[in-house]
Amino acid sequence: NADTAMYHAKESGRNNYQFFKHAMNVRAVERQVIESSLWQALDRHEFILHYQPKLNLKTGAVTGAEALVRWQHPQWGLTLPERFVPVAEECGLIVPLGRWVLREACRQTRRWQEQGLELASIAVNISALEFRHADFVAGVQLILAETDLPPQCLQLEITESVLMRDADISSGILQQLKDIGVQLAVDDFGTGYSSLSYLLKFPIDVLKIDKSFVHAINANTGIIASAMIAMGASLHYKVVAEGVESQAQLVFLKREQCDEGQGYLFSRGLLSEQFARLFLHKSVPLDC
Ligand code: C2E
Ligand code: MG
Ligand code: MG
Ligand code: MG
Q1: Ligand 1: does its nearest atom lie under 6 Å from the Cβ of 243?
Q2: Of 210, 129, 144, nearest in space to 177 by CA
Q3: Where in the cell (predicted)?
């Protein structure tokens, strides 16, 4: 009857509540654990960079790489950024961690160049907090001077949503970075739901098409990807497709004359020695 039905509804409501409370506690505890070991991780040199090749889609030549941070945790093993970058952002550790990533990526790239590997650029991801940090621009300049990497060889990737938050402030920071001579890329382009005309006023060199649009190439013929490529070309941006996984996507991107590509079809992120070996082979076969 109605009473027992009501009773059961209340009970299950309470159970759901208990369940969510428990799940939240687990998350909070996990976050706490991650945060406390994160602080030691930098001192203990537990972070490493993987380098994912970027290819010129016309020639198949490797033009450079994107540096991707990983945490070599003593118990958890190789830990991906989705698990710790958000925590590092919340607790502020992203600033010294980002500094480390930038220095390590620039140093490695300079070393490669000295060994005769002519990388056009190394791309480094910059989080919201780093980008807005008062010392960021000076820090980039200092690291370039320290590592002796030519500024045009450094490409900073900033997501569209970070750029569009306080767009006027972003614009000023981007201009200062441009003055140093580094390249600027909009990461995850198309996912920020922002005013396109505003975004395109920024002094940007590269649009990185978010992988969701690249993956959609299978399903709905990739009309968004091709519109992005056409727009990028007519506005003189370099267009990079991220997350290229299939031959069909590659064929499509080549036909649409997308400049560069990155994805598991070519290679995952590699250790520096592996990357150097791949680079020496000069290109990945793009037979299609
Ligand atoms: P992102 O900058 O958009 O990087 C691309 C992500 O896609 C990387 O994941 C890469 O491994 C993955 N990926 C590459 N090719 C493919 C593919 O063909 N298919 C699929 N499904 N995925 C592919 P990862 O390394 O786990 O990084 C995730 C995100 O974490 C990055 O997204 C970036 O926002 C952030 N991140 C990575 N390294 C750093 C860093 O050093 N500093 C900061 N602040 N953020 C970083
Ligand atoms: Mg990126
Ligand atoms: Mg991206
Ligand atoms: Mg992404």
Answers
A1: yes
A2: 144
A3: Cell inner membrane
